[in-house]
Amino acid sequence: MSWWRLAEGAVLVALAVALLCTQSTGVLAAATMARTERLTMTAHLRYLTAKGAYLLEEGSVSGPLAGTVKAHVRFTADISGSFEFYPHDGSISGYGSARLHESGTYVSFGGTVTITGGTGRYAHARGGGGLYGVYNRRTLGLTIQTTGSLSY
Amino acid sequence: MRLIRVLLAACVVACLSTCICGSALAAQTASLYASFSPERLGAHATIFLGFRISSIPPASQSPLTNVSVLLPGEIGLATSGLGLENCRLHTLEERGAYGCPADALMGRGTATAEISIGGETIAESAQIEVFSAPVREGRLALWVFANAHTPVSAEPVFPAAVVSAPSPYGDAIDAAIPLIPTLPGAPDVAVTRFHMALGATARGPDHFVYYKSVRGRRVGYAPKGLLLPSACPRGGFPFEAQFVFQDETNATARTTVPCPARQPRRPTAQSHPRTSSSP
Predict the structure, then answer these.
(1) What percent of chain B has pLDDT over 70?
(2) Would you say B148 and B129 are in contact if contact means Cβ atoms under 8 Å apart?
(3) How does DSSP assign B58-122, residue by residue?
(4) Cys bridge to A144: A34, A133, B51, B128, which one at CB 3.0-4.6 A?
(5) Which one of A57, A103, A134, A137 makes the best mutation probe of the B interface by having the most chain B beta carbons within 10 Å?
(6) How far apart are the C-alpha atoms of A109 and B205, rounded to whole Å?
(7) Hey, which bits of A76-141 come out as E strands?
(8) Partners of A85 in the beta sheet?
(9) A72-88 mean pLDDT
(10) Which residues between 259 and 278 in chain B have a beta carbon less than 8 angstroms from any beta carbon of chain A?
(11) What is the pLDDT, as a whole number, of residue A2?
């Protein structure tokens, strides 16, 4: 009898361990399943302040992930900068660089953008793509369109 | 035999000293100065830049072929409001500065050159105007237009580009200067002095206006100029100029514009920066 009970106990423990293992691997699988989207978004930024060649701008982003954005842009021989984008449920950060295409009142440029991380729903955000923009030298405002992929 | 060796050694020493002294005499030195107007942190300002090139003996200077002026990292051309339109090369060459849009002018100045004619050295001045040009190789570009009349009549246009400079500098204006011949067999024109205002001045020969449309009317206004930071960098605003000459020698000159005093100053006040030079 005691042997039967011992065997029953062992089976229960084995089942419990198996169940727990199955559940934990399921959780892990769900955690590592990244969602990848291909997005085209447009940001309209207005000038806040400048320090030398560095501009601080903020504005809104329209597209599949709408929200607000803040950007530090260095405008010298070429254009580079970092941004913090605040869609619903988190934030996405990254940087970009571009070369000038045309100058004058409207300075157009093209280059690449890289997403390096985020917070909240986008804590594991990664991605990148191309960017195209126009800088208005009278208002110091920027319009930037990006097309690329975002994994989170 | 010993006498021959001594004589040979003396010849070698004499030749070496002649060579060394010769190259030292041919070296050019340069000095640079810079100032802001108005000298007010956080305000837009016109930058006055100038350099002077000297040679020993005087009037033996090799023509300048390239100059790069490195601007402080805290100052950017992007927010200056200068060069809102571009001037095309063929416009400058065919119609001169008058053919360019008013909003393409970024600065004015003068250049003085030495010209050797018949064993005599003559100084000639040229009016300089700097215009915004269409982007070249992904960089902001400029045209430098020089207008000289006597004794050598020339209106050279040469390209300049805005490039990135290492810290503590930000933008650098890099200009390739063409060789300007004088008489057959005589040396090319050698620039010895240069002065310009980057931005408009309130009055005087460097004054210019831009135009904008206000309710359908064309209204003139003074472009803002380069934005000074609200805080002064430690030690002041550093400037540097790098020169390359036709004889493949080069020179570097540096200067610092001191931090403006905290109390408000008159808008026309200018600094008296220290200058330094090295061959």
Answers:
(1) 84
(2) no
(3) TT-PPPEEEEEEEEETT--STTS----S---HHHHHHHGGGGS-GGGEEEEEEEEEEEEETTEEE
(4) A133
(5) A103
(6) 35
(7) 79-87, 90-102, 106-120, 126-136
(8) A69, A92
(9) 90
(10) none
(11) 56
Of the pLDDT bands very low, low, confident and very high (cuts 50, 70, 90), residue A12 is low
pLDDT in tens, B4-16: 565 445 444 444 4
Asked whether the CA dihedral B202, B205, B211, B217 is positive or negative, the reply is positive
- All residues of chain B having their beta carbon less than 8 Å from the beta carbon of residue A100 are 135, 138-140
Name the helix (H) or strand (E) containing A17.
Answer: helix A2-32
Q: Do B75 and A102 touch (CB under 8 A)?
A: no
Residue A141 has which token pair?
A: 């405002």
C-alpha atoms less than 13 angstroms from C-alpha of B7 in its C-beta half-sphere: 4
Domain boundaries, chain A: 1-33, 36-151
Instruction: Report how far residue B127's alpha carbon sits from residue B111's, in angstroms, rounded to the nearest whole number.
Output: 7
Q: Which of A99, A100, A109 to mutate to test the interface with B (most CBs of B within 10 A)?
A: A100
Residues of chain B positioned with their CB less than 8 A from the CB of A51 = 74, 229-230
Which of chain A's residues have a Cβ under 8 Å away from the Cβ of B75?
52-53
Contact B103, B211 (CB under 8 A): yes
- pLDDT per residue over B149-186, tens digit each? 877 788 889 999 999 899 899 889 999 998 887 777 77
Round to whole Å and give the CA distance between B244 and B214. Answer: 46
Average pLDDT over residues A98-107: 92
Tallying the residues shown for chain B, one arrives at: 279
With contact defined as beta carbons under 8 Å apart, do A8 and A16 qualify? no
| Tokens encoding B10 | 């003396």
For the purposes of burial, counting CB atoms within 10 Å of the CB of A10, is it exposed (0-12), middle (13-18) or buried (19 or more)?
A: exposed
Express as a percent the part of chain B with pLDDT over 90.
42
Q: Hey, what CATH class is A36-151 in? A: mainly beta
Confirm if A152 and A124 have CB atoms less than 8 A apart.
yes
CB-CB contact of A70 with A82 (8 Å) = no
Encode pLDDT of B16-69 as tens digits. Answer: 443 333 334 457 899 999 999 999 888 889 999 999 998 877 767 889 999 999
pLDDT of residue A131: 96
Q: What average pLDDT does the structure give for chain B?
A: 82
Q: Calculate the CA dihedral of residues A74, A79, A83, A88 and round it to 10 degrees.
A: 140
Helix (H) or strand (E) holding B14: helix B2-26
Nearest to A89, CA basis, from A59, A129, A118: A118
